[in-house]
Amino acid sequence: MNPKFYFLPQEKQQTILNAGFHVFSRNSYRKSPMSEIADAAGISKSLLFHYFHNKKELYLFLWDTCAKITVEEMERSGTYEQTDLFGSMEYGMQVKLSLMRRYPDIGVFAVRAFYEKDPEVSSDIQRSMGRYLAVHAEKKLQKLDHEDFIPGIDLQMMYKEMYWASEGCLWEYIQRGSMDTDAMEKDFHELVDFWKKVYIRKGQGDKR
Amino acid sequence: MNPKFYFLPQEKQQTILNAGFHVFSRNSYRKSPMSEIADAAGISKSLLFHYFHNKKELYLFLWDTCAKITVEEMERSGTYEQTDLFGSMEYGMQVKLSLMRRYPDIGVFAVRAFYEKDPEVSSDIQRSMGRYLAVHAEKKLQKLDHEDFIPGIDLQMMYKEMYWASEGCLWEYIQRGSMDTDAMEKDFHELVDFWKKVYIRKGQGDKR
DNA sequence: CCTCCGTTAACCGAATCGGTCAATATGATG
DNA sequence: CATCATATTGACCGATTCGGTTAACGGAGG
Questions:
Q1: pLDDT band, very low/low/confident/very high, at B195 (cuts 50, 70, 90)
Q2: Were both Cys, which of A32, A46, A149, B115 would link to A27 (CB 3.0–4.6 Å)?
Q3: What is the pLDDT of residue A204?
Q4: Which of B96, B153, B164 is best to mutate for the A interface (most A CBs within 10 A)?
Q5: Is A63 part of any domain?
């Protein structure tokens, strides 16, 4: 891509990226017209082609940006260092929310890109997934201590259930199209509170 | 639409409907080409236009079919009569699964159609939603008895959490593109089992 | 042979696509 | 004001795709 893109004011860069995320997240690669992206960004198609020489380049750039931003945000917020299960759950959500506030469609875009079948881009996407996947290695389960949770509970199932519930909550907002991150944050927080009340073993005061 | 469609063998009707659900569930209304639907159904575009005079008619027919089939299946399975919370949850899932086995993309289609913005169809969709919505009136919460559940639990939050988790589970399969209904049924069932173990108050033997 | 009838290939005009390019608008410099 | 570099655009291109039409094909029954 044209390095001049980097010299644009941050805000304008973000607007263009968001336009890309928006269109590509709602249509397949092939059915996402550059003209529609340009319109969403408030610039002419010609200018968009000036910064990104063709559609594939823009798409792959968005994908890389996606991965880069995510890793940055996780490092910045200290999500990696989180050891407590509920804490890491809440931190993970905070990362998602913070990303979504700046780039409302980045989440849906990432999922769609990952499953994109178009041969023009699918191989490139899959190839660059190596690094991205390494991040999400979920080894948290093995570190859990049964003593901290209510007796007899299936911890693996509990984790799966928590994961699905948070995804289901997120999904509800996404479908509705209203990316009200504040409302989402509230819902997420209530979710974690609910889990803590239900799953954590009580009796000996503060655990650990 | 052409009444001759009804005289087609059930199987062929279903193939055509599924082709429609498939394409319309993956693209917006405007970006779902009739040719693609015809190909997916294994017939020529001309024949598709022979049964449905134009795209809008096919789309609205699919939508109506969607609502009709759902109500039928819920009546057939006796979901409406279910009073127990977990039971109605499991019955509801069974309905979804049974529909999804015959029409793999009907769920995603329904959601997309509901939020479709294209002025050519959006008003018609919204208008016909009156009947459809009446079905989903969730008055279940008010009938619940606190004595049946673990002490101090927020029943409304519990229900919300269960709903989100099942939606999140479904959503995971949908994104992956693999509509393995048997695996989904297993996951759903395990979910309900888990909820029962965690949420139901124990002590006085069988409740009620 | 003819006549239905399900089905299709070929076609139509209009729109849209990715991408190019010459022209214009803008702003700094002398 | 004139000059020049740069940012931005409208107009255009050839190719493709769109929704929809139409004439013809092909097989079954009389």
A1: very high
A2: A32
A3: 58
A4: B164
A5: yes
Domain at B26, CATH number = 1.10.357.10
Strands in B103-142 per DSSP E: none
Looking up tokens 């931003």 gives A69
Nearest beta carbon to residue A194 from set B28, B31, B161: B161
Q: What are the tens digits of pLDDT across the range B83-137? A: 889 998 999 999 999 999 999 999 999 999 999 999 999 999 999 887 666 555 5
Is pLDDT of B55 > 80? yes
Number of domains in chain B: 1
Contacts of A194 in chain B (CB under 8 A): 154, 157-158, 161
Interchain CB distance below 8 Å, B154 and A194: yes
| pLDDT score at B144 | 84
How do residues B112-126 score in pLDDT, each as one tens digit? 999 999 999 999 999
Q: Spell out which residues of chain B touch residue A198, defining contact as CB-CB under 8 Å.
A: 150, 153, 198-199
* CB B132, CB B67: distance < 8 Å: yes
Cβ of A198 within 8 Å of Cβ of B199? The answer is yes
**Residue B207 within a domain:** no
Nearest to B165 among A27, A153, A164 (CB): A164
Domain span at residue B196 reads 3-202
Residue A154 falls inside a structural domain: yes
What's the pTM?
0.92
- Do B115 and A168 lie within an 8 Å CB cutoff? no
**A125-145 pLDDT tens trace:** 999 887 666 555 556 666 788
Cβ-Cβ contacts under 8 Å for A23 (sequence gap 6 or more):
A32, A33, A36, A37, A40
Top residue of B114, B171, B178 to mutate, by most chain A CBs within 10 Å, is B171
Across A47-61, average pLDDT: 98
Segment A154-169 shows an average pLDDT of 96
Nearest nt to the CA of A32 via C1' is C17
Q: Which residues of A87-115 are buried (b: 16+ CB within 10 A; e: fewer)?
A: ebbbbbbbbbbbbbeebbbbbbbbebbbe
Helix axes B85-102, B155-176, angle to 10 degrees: 20
Chain D positions with an atom below 7 A of a protein C-beta are 7-11, 17-23
